[in-house]
Amino acid sequence: MTTRPATPPRPFDHRMAVHSSDEEFLATALAFLAEGLTAPDEPPPVAIAAPAKLDLLRDALAGDAARVVTVPHTDWYTGSAANAIAQAAGYLAAHAGPGGRIHLLMEPDWGGRAGRSARESAEWIRYEALANLLFAPFATTALCVYDTRTAGPAVIAAARRAHPDTEVYADPLLVAAELDAVPLPPAPRDAHRLDTPDPDAVRTWAVARGLAAAEAELFATAVAEAAVDPVTGVLLWGEAPSCVCELRSARPVGDPLAGFVPPPATEPAPGQGLWFARQVCAYVDVRDDAAGTSVRLQYA
């Protein structure tokens, strides 16, 4: 008996489309979803978009609407960019076909957290760029749709550099390095100093700064998880909800994907390091330099 060799997975297909009207969105989305509906060895395609656009899609799909999974983007993009990576990784693990095969139509919520500031928008561009590395092992087809009515021209121009199907695509690590080249604001002179990232001390400080007990517990745990031994300095500053901790270490992290790759399923919690910190905090900045590394966590 001969055995057919397994079909090697396709590389991650990361596409981008820009539209400026509902009609353009529908034309793009319907063609993409039709591709997913006819793809072999794939579960139903998924459309993640603004609720009003999902209503338009369901009407246009008519009898095929039941064969497409629809998710309001306000339900999918509920936290930081790192949360979106976790959401996508979890969905692929639970629902994708062989090799990660599935079609995902994805529209970030630019009216929500993703578009609330230039800093937040930059983190979503980092997510778009690093997705090319993080999901490279999967045969997933993702179409990221950008509406010029909600995403500004600077965001769209930056996003083009994160998608391989554009003429201006740039290496993901170069994009990440450019984002990291923007200096962070210096720590204030009156920042609270600790000798070690002791969770009890961080928790006590955070509660005194106005964080609720449960949030202070999460923040303290995130700080402890993010600490890279040996820690040479700990600074705390800010008021709730924007409590900040900066950790200094003589040992560089040296990995631009640190904290973006889910830990092994067999690894017990706690012990998830920067992955846990990125899920809890609004921002986690890792900057290597000649003296080692700094990890700055901002709770919200």
Task: Please characterize this protein's 3D structure.
This protein is of the alpha/beta class. It has helices spanning 22-37, 51-61, 73-76, 81-95, 118-134, 153-160, 172-180, 199-208, 213-226, 273-280, and strands at residues 13-19, 46-49, 69-72, 102-106, 140-147, 192-194, 231-237, 244-249, 283-289, 292-298. It is built from 10 helices and 10 strands. The strands form 2 sheets. The protein has a 5-stranded parallel sheet with strand order 1-5-4-2-3, with helices on both faces. A 5-stranded antiparallel sheet has the order 6-7-8-10-9, with helices on one face.
Q: Keywords for this structure?
A:
300 residues, alpha/beta, 5-stranded parallel sheet, 5-stranded antiparallel sheet, elongated
Question: Termini separation (Å)?
Answer: 60 Å
Gross morphology:
elongated
Largest sheet: 5 strands, parallel
Mean of pLDDT: 90
Poorly predicted ranges (pLDDT <50, ≥5 residues)?
Answer: 1-9
* Secondary structure category: alpha/beta
Beta-strand percent range:
15-25%
Taken in chain order, the helices and strands follow as EHEHEHHEHEHHEHHEEHEE
- Strand order within the widest sheet? 1-5-4-2-3
